[in-house]
Amino acid sequence: MILRLVEEWEGGFTVAELHACARALNPRLGLATTYRTLELLRTAGAVRPVLTGSTRAYVCCSPTHHHHLVCTTCGGVEETELCAAPPEAELRRLHGFRPTAHDLDIYGTCRSCAA
Q1: What is the reported pLDDT for 35?
Q2: What CA–CA distance (Å, rounded) separates 30 from 37?
Q3: Rounded distance between C-alpha atoms, residue 82 and residue 10, angstroms
Q4: Beta strand 55-60 with 47-52: parallel, antiparallel or unpaired?
Q5: Nearest to 12 by CA among 81, 84, 80, 71
Q6: What is the DSSP string of the chain?
Q7: What is the number of domains present in the chain?
Q8: Distances (CA, A) of 50 to 13, 31, 40
Q9: Using CA of residue 20, residue 109, residue 7, residue 32, what is the dihedral sign?
Q10: Percent over 70 (pLDDT), the chain
Q11: pTM score, two decimals?
Q12: CA-CA distance, 42 to 44, in Å (whole number)?
């Protein structure tokens, strides 16, 4: 049930929001179960935490390489495939660094809030 809610959720959600929706479907669901399930999904790469203002939210993530655009006005989160990370070859050449992965969240104002 929690997985289905996460998959259908538009944008970011907090643990409290997810738990409230899940409890509407199953009033016996405990908060600890919601936390444990969300942690399993995070470990599997299905969700990722982002900061929306001072609140930690989560977003459902596609398995493809992407980053998040986080609106600091409304807290909305949108995926983008644009990547500003330097290429692996350049990191090796300049720093001798061999990256294995990277995360990038871009904070600003979304189109709706900017209008």
Answers
A1: 95
A2: 11
A3: 20
A4: antiparallel
A5: 71
A6: -HHHHHHH--S-B-HHHHHHHHHHH-TT--HHHHHHHHHHHHHTTSEEEEEETTEEEEEE--SSS-EEEEETTT--EEEE----SPPHHHHHHHH---------EEEE--HHHH-
A7: 1
A8: 10, 20, 16
A9: negative
A10: 99
A11: 0.71
A12: 5
Q: What is the pLDDT of residue 70?
A: 87
CATH of the domain at 73: 3.30.1490.190
- Could you list the residue range(s) of the whole structural domain that residue 72 is in? 2-114
- At 52 the pLDDT is 72
CB 16 within 8 A of CB 55: no
Query: How far, in Å, CA of 59 to CA of 105, rounded?
Result: 12
